[in-house]
């Protein structure tokens, strides 16, 4: 995983969270990306803590669960 960045949505769908130049998580609402806990943007920090390593299938599933949990709050 390289640089993490958020691309704002172009329509009603959520934005994209890029983990490198080609791969991304799609459908992440801006409110989820901006969610803060303890002064940290949760969706961003979780990925940045894993910078420089390949994300496993379990990592991808966990991140999707984090995003879904933030969307419900």
From TrEMBL:
Residues 2-68 form the Type ISP restriction-modification enzyme LLaBIII C-terminal specificity domain. GO terms for molecular function: methyltransferase activity. GO terms for biological process: methylation. Keywords: Methyltransferase, Transferase. Pfam families: Type_ISP_C. This is Adenine specific DNA methyltransferase. It comes from mine drainage metagenome. The lineage of its organism: unclassified sequences, metagenomes, ecological metagenomes.
């Amino acid at each position: 995983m390289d640089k993490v960045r958020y691309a704002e949505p172009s329509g009603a769908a959520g934005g994209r969270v890029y983990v490198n130049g080609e791969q991304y998580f799609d459908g992440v609402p801006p409110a989820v990306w901006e969610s803060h806990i303890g002064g940290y943007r949760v969706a961003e920090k979780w990925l940045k803590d894993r910078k420089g390593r390949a994300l496993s299938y379990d990592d991808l599933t966990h991140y999707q669960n984090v995003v879904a949990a933030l969307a419900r709050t």
